[in-house]
Amino acid sequence: VLAVIHPDDRLYYDAAAAGLALGEPVAGGPSRQDSVRLGLEALAPLAPRLVLIHDGARPFLDAGLISRVVTALDHHPGAIPALAVHDTLKLGGNGLIERTVPRDGLYRAQTPQGFHFAAILEAHRAAAGRQLTDDAAVAEQAGLAVALVAGAEENRKITTRDDLDRAAARLAGVGEIRVGSGFDVHRFTTGDRVILCNLPIPHDAGLEGHSDADVALHALTDALLGCIAAGDIGRHFPPTDPRWKGCDSAVFLAHATTLVRALGGTIQFCDLTIICERPKIGPHRSAMAARVADILQIDQHRVSIKATTTEGLGFTGRREGIAAQATATVKFQGA
Predict the structure, then answer these.
(1) CA–CA gap between residue 83 and residue 26 (Å, rounded)
(2) Residue 325 and residue 10: Cα distance in Å, rounded?
(3) How many CB atoms lie within 10 A of CB 192?
(4) What's residue 169's pLDDT?
C-alpha cells in the first residue's frame, strides 16, 4: 500500500499509520490527478501488473467490493465500482429547473478504481495538465475500456460535516439499549396533599416517607439506576441519613440522570404508572410529564405518565397508599 499525502499532513499520517506496515508516503501534487500520477510514478520501479487507486475519503470499503474490481480486471484494462442513479435528475440555473436529465445509464462512480498498471500510468502521463475528476476519466481519454462493477452505498465519500457525523456514528457502532424498571410504595398519613412527579397534588392525606415521599420519582429513579446496575435509591440516599429528611425527590432523580450520562448513556424514554384510587391523576398528567422531562433534561414526548387503579383490591384499593412502577430506556452509544 502506497499513500499519497499533502506534505503538510505528514504528522497526521505518521500518527494514523503508526504500527501499520506502510512504506514511505509520496508527496502529492496541486490536484488529485497530479497526486495519482506521482503515486503511480513512485510505483513504477516495482512494475506491478495491477493497481487499485482509492480515495482515502472513502474509509468504509469492504473486501467484496475490492474483489469485484480485481476480478473484472481479468477481462478489462480498467474497472470501477459504481451505483446506478435512481433519483430523478434536474439541470438547474438561477435557482430554477431548466430541464429533467434522463437517468437511464447514469452511475455514481466510486473507488477503488482498478487498472492494468502500465496502461493507466501511460494514460496519466498523457493526461498531465488536464482537469479530469477521476482515474476512469483519464482511462477513457486514453481509449481504455473500463468495466462497471457493483458499488456499495456504505462506500460513501466523506465530504461534508454531515458525512463526518455519519462516519463517526458508524465507527461508534450501533450501541446498546438497556431497560431498567423501578417500583415503590408509600402509605398515606395525615396531610392535605401528596407530592407526585415533583408536583403538589391536593388530597385529604399525605404520603409517609423519609424524604418528600414522591413515590413516582422514587420508582423512576430506581429504573434509571437499574439501567447502569447502580443499585437502588436506598443505596445512594439511605433513609437513615438525616441529610435526606424531607428532601425534594427531584434531587434523587437528577442524581440518577447524572450517573447515566457520565457513563455515556442517553435517556430515550421513560414510562411511569401511578397506582391509586385517589387522588385522580388525569388532570395533572401533562404537568407531571413536563416536570419529569425538565428534571431529566429530555423532550416531554419522551415521558409517559399513566395511572390505574386495582379495582378496589389490595392496599391501594383500600386507599391505604400509592404505588408506582416505572420503566426507563437508555441508549449507550458504541457500548
Answers:
(1) 30
(2) 58
(3) 10
(4) 79
Rounded CA separation 18/22 (Å): 9
Residues counted in the chain: 335
| Residues 28/6, Cβ–Cβ less than 8 Å | yes
- DSSP of 180-201: EEEEEEEEEES-SEEEETTEEE
Mean pLDDT computed over 5-15: 94
Indicate the DSSP class of residue 275. E
Neighbour tally for 214: CB within 10 Å: 28
Q: ω into residue 239 within 30 of 0, thus cis?
A: no
Instruction: Report CA-CA distances (Å) from 5 to 9, 35, 96.
Output: 7, 8, 39
Domains and CATH numbers, the chain: 31-171 (3.90.550.10), 176-332 (3.30.1330.50)
| CA pseudo-torsion sign 67, 14, 40, 57 | positive
* Tens digits of residue pLDDT in 130-158: 999 999 999 999 999 999 999 999 999 99
Neighbour tally for 65: CB within 10 Å = 21
Rama region for 173: left / alpha / beta (φ>0; ψ in -120 to 50; rest): left
Instruction: Measure the CA–CA gap between 142 and 112, rounded to whole angstroms.
Output: 19
Query: What local confidence, expressed as pLDDT, does residue 333 receive?
Result: 76
335/325 Cα distance (integer angstroms): 27
| C-alpha cell of residue 126 | 498523457
Give the contacts of 244 (CB within 8 A, at least 6 positions apart).
Answer: 210, 211, 237, 238
Helix/strand/coil for 267: strand
Task: Tell if the pTM clears 0.70, that is, is over it.
Answer: no
Q: What is the CA radius of gyration of the chain?
A: 32
SS3 call for 231: coil
